[in-house]
Amino acid sequence: MPLLRFLPEATNINFIGVRYYAFAFDGLLLAISIVSILWHGFNLGLDFTGGVEVEAKAPYSISQSQIGAIREQITALNFNDQVIQTVGGGPCARPEGSCVMIRVQPRANQDYNAAAQTIKNKLGTKYTYLNTQVIGAKVSGELLHAGIYAAIAAVICISLWVAFRFEWQYGAAAALATGHDVFVTAGLFSVLHLDFTLTSIAALLTLAGYSINDTVVVFDRLRENRRKYKRMPLAELINLSTNQMLTRTILTSVATALSIIPLYFFVPALMEFTGAILFGIVVGTFSSTYVAAALLLYLPKPAGHIETPVAAEAS
Q1: pTM, whole model, 2 decimals?
Q2: Would you tell me which of 166, 182, 279, 295 could form a disulfide with 170, CB atoms 3.0–4.6 Å apart?
């Protein structure tokens, strides 16, 4: 027996009894995501819009007044769009905040490499140029479509695997729960106006795999209990199975979060990626616990399940 126990070994929570509250909460998250995506869209990064990104390092910490001066210099170049911000961490940590990232959208028919060189010429030789990215509009559009297709295909393939591994009812429930987790996390990028890049797509695909893991664990225990208690009502089976796996689910989620939190605070370049994963862990754990299995109540009963009223069984 462990010396410290943060969670009880056995719980008796009525998950099915509060399913309507869970559905309402999930519905609210979906509504916020849909409205934000339709209203604001995504703050597409350079990967998906095309353009030029230059990261330059100064031998001193860059103040806000100096950022303003750099902004005026870049504005004078008359690019279509520009984002200028300081960067910390990594090679920019000594001194802290000594790097500036300049992201611009070149003018129509302007050569992207020439635009990058124009920025460097404007800033001068006092900066060391750490990174320069040039992405054409055609390539960026293809990347955006490929990323969207990859996320959709991941959810579909996961659902088909669950349907094959268990039964089609489980696959349908997994598709709804996993799709919900991915879509709501994508909505987070829209609500907070975070840069939506290829790294964001990687976060969504990672989340899809993580979310289905918790769901499959509950489904697997539900299938075992179904064989064991063939006449137990499905609602009671879901409560029993979810309670049996609750401690394992929470400990897994906490352990995963603890491994990611240091990256969130100490690796600024991965802040949006890790932030999305942490948010997705919370949403995914909630949907796997309260939503995924409860959806089975609204689908045809799985094969081999026999529900007998309590009174009839007693007689």
Answers
A1: 0.73
A2: 166
